[in-house]
Amino acid sequence: MLTSIAISNFAIVESLELEFKKGMTVISGETGAGKSIMVDALSLCLGDRTDAAVVRHGQKRADISASFDIQNYPHVHKWLEERDLEHDQHCILRRVISKEGRSKAYINGRPCTLSDLKDVGSQLVDIHGQHEHQSLLKKNAQRQQVDEYGRLTELSKKVSQQYATWRQLKEELSAQQNRSSEQDAKIQLLSYQAQELQQLDLKEGEIEELENEQAFLSNIADSQFKAYQASGILIDSDEGNICSLLHQAINSASQIRPATKELENALEMMNVALIQAQEAADSLHHYQDTLEQNPERLIDIERRLSDIYDTARKHRTLPEGLLSLRESVEAELDSLQGSEESLESLKEKEELAYEKLTALATTLTEKRIIAKDELAQKVEEQIHGLGMPYARFFIQCQPLNQVSANGFEDIEYMIASNPGQPAQPLRKVASGGELSRISLGIQVVTAHTSIIPTLVFDEVDVGISGGIAEVVGRMLRSVGKRGQVFCVTHLAQVAAQGNQHLRVSKLVEDEATSSQVELLKDQDRTQEIARLLGGLELTEQTLAHAREMLRNVQLQ
């Protein structure tokens, strides 16, 4: 439960620290004094969104922290342990908002995300606002209330998630089936292309080898002639070749006298040149012997290259790209042919997903019927005590034609306000006052079954007065017996039922406005109850009435 709250520079609150006890705490005050400021501040500690406007004028930041005793709430302990945030028997939530609008959140002194703050906050406090009856007219809100009352929220979420899974599979299956005719044509085309490329059977590096061999075979005759011409110049020509000329040069030089060192070097070099020329001529002769024209092979090569080039042009790619084209065509063909098998697999998955969805939704329907009947009976009992003694309250489960994300049924609240009248949807017949009473009745019923330790009712008694207000006060006090209830009220009959009474007042000092909160006891509380009873001045009669109301509460 909430044990304390500290508020600094929030709205018109300069500094405020309050401690709380179990039971019902009422908060009252003049209009505009800031009765709901504590609720607003607590909402920020629970993860609500905010902006720079909440920071007190002239200050750098607003700082709010709330401390909770969680020793009797193991689910909160577990949540904190899983995130290494456990701190004895307490959970401290803190929110800091800068004047620039930036926000920081903390759990037990450690920085956290707003999502985590909201998650743990939802397990600690439940706030019922004064406009809650407006959402009561929406079917979605009604369905959520039934699920929350029956502890079916997790099951409902599973149905919604399974519905999304099934819808995705169903859409994939439909798209796959619609594409089947196009796939057949595509498979036929790819099969032809794959067959053609497989028949071509192009090998890695084959084009380069063929082109080199083609160039070689095409130039054999010219190569033979040039090799013959070169060997003639070296040794075979009768009109003077290099080797015979070198012989003559060597003979002439050998006859020179005296033979000097330079002459010996020259002779040596000419002999080397002669030997090299002879060896070169031998190599050319050998080369000529290896050259053999092969017109049949050349025709085969040119035909093969022609097939390759034609196939490349047909597929609008370069010859070198035919290998990768074959790979991609075969891969796509395998994928499409495999999709025929995957179509069956997808169909099976879709059917299994639908079976799981219907099983979950059927279980949800069965439990909703039990929960909605129990909730309707208890709400009806509550609204009878709230000045609608003849009202009949029903919760209708209208079966849908097919399963939806919310299950097999459409849930709607029905009311028959007077005897003999047929039940009609709440949104069509209930007046504003009736809506307030029905909403309060539902909140009180659901509060009795809630596992959340702290419940806040922010002016939920709007539109209620007199004896009904006293009934409301007793309802809230009974809810407070199981834990902790806060009630912001302007009704004396409700305020008198509180175990604690806080009064909010507005103070203007040095042209600055601030809100103050004080715990009322004895005479101060009597005067506040008397003020709530009405009148410009407190008379002895209203004070006596206030004392009587407080005394009657103590005698209950």
TrEMBL record:
May be involved in recombinational repair of damaged DNA. Residues 1-506 form the RecF/RecN/SMC N-terminal domain. Keywords: ATP-binding, Coiled coil, DNA damage, DNA repair, Nucleotide-binding. InterPro entries: DNA_recomb/repair_RecN, P-loop_NTPase, RecF/RecN/SMC_N. GO terms for molecular function: ATP binding. Residues 193-220, 326-356 form a coiled coil. Gene3D superfamilies: P-loop containing nucleotide triphosphate hydrolases. GO terms for biological process: DNA recombination; DNA repair; SOS response. This is DNA repair protein RecN. GO terms for cellular component: bacterial nucleoid. Belongs to the RecN family.
